[in-house]
Amino acid sequence: MGVRPSSHFAPPVNAPLGPIERFAEHCAELERSRLNLGSHQPIFKLRSALEESGLHVFMAKLDSKLAGMYVFAPSFGYCILVNRSHRRERRRWTIAHEYGHYLFDRDKPGIDLIKAPTRKSESEKFADSFAAALLMPATGVQQRFYEEYERCGDFVVSNLLRMAEYYGVSLPAMALRLEAMDLIGKGSWEFLKRSGANLSALKEMAGMQSLEEEDSVDLYPERYKLLAVQAFVEDKISEGQLARLLRCTRLEAREIVEETSCISDEGNNSFVPVSLSRSLLRSRESEM
């Protein structure tokens, strides 16, 4: 059987009258349930989880001002391009934010900048609120907040740092989420920003170490690579086209083909290309 684009796309949403932020929170809860991500825990492998549902996440080094881009191709799926140069927390936010666009306005391709416009559109408000709720679910955040408070008898900057690390988000994202939930004072993040405190120094003072990357930072999704290799094995594209699709040299492309869709003959170390759509029901003895 060949590799086919996933058909398990999330249905688009239609926003009712009322606060768009509340609706985005509701949609994030539904998506967590639909994707079996749990109702309160962090999503440690966000990219992997969303790619399994049919999303295609590509990464590339972009201008530092660019966060990501998104487009929906009906015959292939929803594609996101994320700035690989950004920190882990920023990349996770971009993926969640673009997924919000997929739900809200998938037919409108767009580009997201690091510095958002002062006046946000409804789709941007939805995407931001959706990302916050998906990465930092209200139930889990509230539970974790009270655990931190009970442990220390207060909720201080080090508690905020630990929560941000736990959910894999940036310090401002965590602070603003807690402010929105009325768990910490309004303006807490603005105070920290004005203080000019260095995040690395704060983490070091709190005895924290940066977590290792848990999710894939590959340039393209696994499904995309399989589709490209399948097209090459079936003589639908040339080796040069395959190399361009996989963003590598021809030699590297050949190695990827061997690793992905070839069977090694242990007797003579030769390789026999195998199409992923090739039937194994008929005898192949005559071909050996």
Automatic annotation (TrEMBL):
<dbReference type="InterPro" id="IPR010359">
    <property type="entry name" value="IrrE_HExxH"/>
</dbReference>
<dbReference type="InterPro" id="IPR052345">
    <property type="entry name" value="Rad_response_metalloprotease"/>
</dbReference>
<feature type="domain" description="IrrE N-terminal-like">
    <location>
        <begin position="51"/>
        <end position="178"/>
    </location>
</feature>
<dbReference type="Pfam" id="PF06114">
    <property type="entry name" value="Peptidase_M78"/>
</dbReference>
<protein>
    <submittedName>
        <fullName>Transcriptional regulator</fullName>
    </submittedName>
</protein>
